Amino acid sequence: MMEGQxxxxxxxxxxxxxxxxxxxxxxxxxDKLKAFMSAVENPFGAAVRLELVEGASGRLxxxxxxxxxxxxxxxxxxxxxxxxxxxxxxxxxxVLYATALGLGTCWLGGTFKRSAFAERLRPVDEYLPAxxxxxxxxxxxxxxxxxxxxxxxxxxxxxxxxVFFDGAPDKPLVPDNGALTTCxxxxxxxxxxxxxxxxxxxVKDGAIHFYALIDRRYAGNTMYGFTMQRIDMGxxxxxxxxxxxxxxxxxxxxxxxxxxxxDEQAAEGxxxxxxxx
Length: 277
Ligand SMILES: Cc1cc2nc3c(=O)[nH]c(=O)nc-3n(C[C@H](O)[C@H](O)[C@H](O)COP(=O)(O)O)c2cc1C
Hints:
- By secondary structure, the protein is of the alpha+beta class.
- The chain has helices spanning 7-13, 27-39, 57-60, 83-100, 114-121, 143-151, 160-163, 179-188, 219-222, 228-247, 263-268, and strands at residues 48-54, 71-77, 104-105, 127-135, 164-166, 199-204, 207-213, 253-254, 270-276.
- Helix 1 (7-13) crosses helix 4 (83-100) and helix 4 (83-100) packs across helix 10.
- The longest helix is centred in the last third of the chain and has 20 residues, at 228-247.
- The protein is globular and about 50 Å long.
């Protein structure tokens, strides 16, 4: 629960907002966001620092992708083995918390001026993977927003059996009415860079093994000095764990590769990330 609201509902309600209403966010809500950000945790031991950044989208620089925003939040992380997964996990919790406060957000990993945000966030032994505007969604969508959303097929998601597997990566998992299906469904509908949905899951012997299908030709993975799609895996972990806690599905994340994929799949870009058990 966040602000008395079900996380499942928040995950279902969240969508990227790229056009903002002139109405500023009330100081009380900004204070709540700040308090939430300073306390947010992640299960991957990543040293994540998240902060509000006051400033208009035009001046800070979002290449026309974001209109009308007056406030952003951004984050830095120290380099470590699972830094980007931890960053994705922590940042997505803030996204969901903002959703609970009635505010729109939009993950930006590429279309923002890194130098302008770095001046504000001042990374020290850290780097800056992503930022997001935060504010009230406008009733009107800009043309850029419509084009971007249509281009990324923003509402489209891969089918359940295309990304979740039963025992081996060639056997689609069949959804049922249980808590595990709901938790996986919350992973399935999550946001991802360019909506590429890299998450793959193999359920075996009561454990849930998460893999990333990394697209090595995707510019997001090559342009910024880090693998953008690892952030998506942190988002997947966040949606899974918060849903599991809400539904009473026991377990926690561990890193313990069960070696279930073939050399061929590894060559395709499949990469083991973490397991829930
Ligand atoms: C790690 C990450 C980076 C993203 N970077 C950008 C970006 O640079 N610019 C942008 O307009 N949207 C960006 N997005 C938003 C995605 O395009 C969006 O989440 C996806 O198309 C699904 O749409 P939805 O969020 O409305 O469900 C990013 C999302 C994620 C998770």
